[in-house]
Amino acid sequence: MILRPYERTIFKRYLLPARGEGFIFVAASFSFVAVMLGVAALVIVMSVVNGVRGELFDKIVGLNGHAVVQGFGGRIDNWRDVLKEVRATPGVTSATPIIEQPLLTTFNGRVEGVAVRGMLVDDIRKNDVLKGEVLQGNLNRLTDGSGEVALGSELARNLGANVGSQITIINPAGRSTPFGTVPREISYSVGAIFEIGVYDFDKSYIIMPMADAQLLLLTGDQIGIIKVQTENADKVGEILAPLSQKLAATAIVADWRSTNSSLFEALEVERVALFVILSLIILVAAFNIVSSLIMLVRAKTRDIAIIRTMGAPRDSVLRIFVAIGVAIGVGGTMVGLILGFVALYFRKGILNGIGYLSGQNLWDPSVRFLTELPSKPNPVEIGVVVVMTIVFSFLATLYPAFKAANTDPVQVLRYE
Questions:
Q1: Is the dihedral of CA 349, 354, 359, 363 positive or negative?
Q2: Do 123 and 168 sit in the same domain of this protein?
Q3: Closest CA to 321 of 15, 6, 43, 5
Q4: String of b and e for 309-341 (b: at least 16 CB within 10 Å)?
Q5: Is 304 within 8 Å of 404 (Cβ atoms)?
Q6: Residues 215 and 85 in one domain
Q7: Do 285 and 341 belong together in one domain?
Q8: Which residues constitute the domain of residue 166?
Q9: Total count of domains within the chain
Q10: Predicted confidence (pLDDT) per residue in 321-361, tens digit
């Protein structure tokens, strides 16, 4: 908003407190702080929610793929032919055969339920989620017949195992004898410990070469699923539609939306609800701007009448008070953005500090899925917050500004 020189002078004068106007300044300060806190809260919460969704998506999809091809009965016999068919589908960037089974593992008397996943050696080494998250050991140690496996960090911690430890994996579906079924027990050496960052995966997953997994599970040359990566995760249904028709008689194609729909839908509902609820803080701040400007107009009625008598038009008075309200909104928005980004940068320390003072674990990985609090600011959402705040601030100025502009100098100065 462009102000004339004399309008800028009056604008600056009314923004700063004069003697006897401390109460008006305090009310305006509350409006500024309310806008600041509302913007900061929206930036922090929306960035954290986006970070949680993005982190979960990257980890889950990175480990399980955009889609999976699963054979009827949980087994794919002619998996090499199916794998060629999947890789030949337009839009598919990679396809990984996997065999997975829930089993038991024991070490030093400790027993844990695990999910044993067998993968081809090259796929283990090329997996972006795994290779970038190795805490100890090396994935290159996992080769066919080596007896080496990789453990999730939480699983290793629960077992008390380290790289080089000998763990035993128990397959209840062992060989049949006259006395019943004897569980199959095979010892493996821990070759690597990884931390994906998703608690449920880190506490249960054991990764091993495909040949070793097939030997442990007695499946022969079979696999359970084929993990599929596509060019566009949002269009995975369209990309894999022809494949679903080709494999209708032998396998089911399920994308990430169907396998994790409840989780991501809940996150999306929570995201929208939090945005609406926190936007009410900015709306309350706008009402504070209205009240502070009304108080300012009542305190400056005589000054407004004198200005009008000296020749100032109505639109000048209107612009002055609109500029005051918008300045409070813009100033609060800018400071709120800075406060929000600072809080996001130091979010881990702030979370730990609050947890220390309250004596509570505010980010329990077993409840929150992720081991750390993520953050992913969205420029579009931040832009919406900024525009929304400035628009609310502008609308809040209209009633007080029109009241000021419609001041009748004759009525005000009649008895002066």
A1: negative
A2: yes
A3: 15
A4: eeebeeebbbbbbbbbbbbbbbbbbebbbebbb
A5: yes
A6: yes
A7: yes
A8: 77-223
A9: 2
A10: 888 888 888 999 999 999 999 999 988 888 888 877 877 77
